[in-house]
Write a structure and sequence with these properties.
The chain is an alpha+beta fold and about 60 residues long. It is about 15% helix and about 20% strand. The chain has one domain: 2-Layer Sandwich (Alpha-Beta Plaits). The chain has a two-stranded antiparallel sheet with strand order 1-4. Strands 2-3 form a two-stranded antiparallel ribbon. Its cofactor is [4Fe-4S] cluster.
Length: about 60
């Protein structure tokens, strides 16, 4: 499973892109997206998912 970004809630601050250890997040068009093929849910790297922990808007980075 991977995480996804709820586009309607995203403020496009970019914090998640730089915190993602698997480089799964990128800005496409006018929104940030998580590539499900690259997302590891931070398993083996962090206890918590970094996108969700740095996002200023609660429940914007969520399990897909």
């Amino acid at each position: 499973m991977a995480y996804k970004i709820i586009a309607s809630q995203c403020t496009q601050c970019g914090a998640c892109e730089f915190e993602c250890p698997s480089s799964a997040i990128e800005y496409k068009g006018e929104k940030y997206v998580i590539d499900p093929d690259k997302c590891t849910e931070c398993k083996g790297a962090f206890e918590l998912q970094q996108c969700a922990s740095v996002c200023p808007v609660p429940k914007t980075c969520v399990p897909a």
